[in-house]
Amino acid sequence: MKPLTREEKIAKIKSLSKPSGNDEKWKKIAKWNRDHADALLDYATIAMRIADAIKEKNMKQKDLAQLLDVTPQALTRIMKGRQNLTLQSIRKIENILEIKLVTIHEPKSKIKLLTFRKECVSTQGKHVSDYTQSISVFSGKIIPITNFNIPNSSNNYLQIEG
Amino acid sequence: MIYFKINLLSAIHRTIQESNEIIQELSAVAKNGLANQQADLDTLFKPLHKNEAFSRPRYHTDYKAKGFQYEAPWIRIYAVRCDKNFFVITGFGIKLVKQMKDDPLLEIEPQKLEKATAYLKEECFLD
Questions:
Q1: How many folded domains does chain B comprise?
Q2: Which of A91, A93, A58 is nearest to A78 (CA)?
């Protein structure tokens, strides 16, 4: 039989193959990857940590799906690194699996020293003393360095040092 | 036979990067459609067999595409070349061995190429 021309081959392959369009699976994956290019490796890292934790806890994926209240298909998407997770979902997974997936650090230059300042006012309305107490702030938690007793009569306020 | 030394997470990251780079390239070419002869599938795909096999008939139809970001890319796409800029993809894999026959997951790929070639010949896509 005579070989087909290029145009005939194109027409024939189109008739033989499944209907093509933008909904083809590989094109969807390509688009998703393009849209999430900055986070692809992070999704994979998260998926791998979840897989490790499931293994360590002798769980099955469907058990985790149940605990997370998601469908097994949704969890499969997470495990394939094809799900844009919300922070809430991440915390939920972390709590169930007792692991840490995402830690948010305050950049060092932004750490501010909060000074807890107490002004004691005498009965005559004069300042008798100023006590200042420094506390460090990191990751949203306030950790007092020492205990500090504040008399009821004082005016207390927090002052943020630049 | 594995000749890469890499930890699991780095291997996963690399596989994602490599496969994504090929899929983006294919996707960009696919946008132009089959009718566009300027699209560059002919530079993305290379003959699967070494030059010594030039006289063998399947040298001219068995093709592979691989990543280009790394010095030794390991993602492969296998395809039958039907015409200029016209390939029928038959499979893909991660090649961590020197020869395809050394990996049970890859050794079926030449068989798939052979079957596809036979079918495409029957349908007059190939000489």
A1: 1
A2: A93
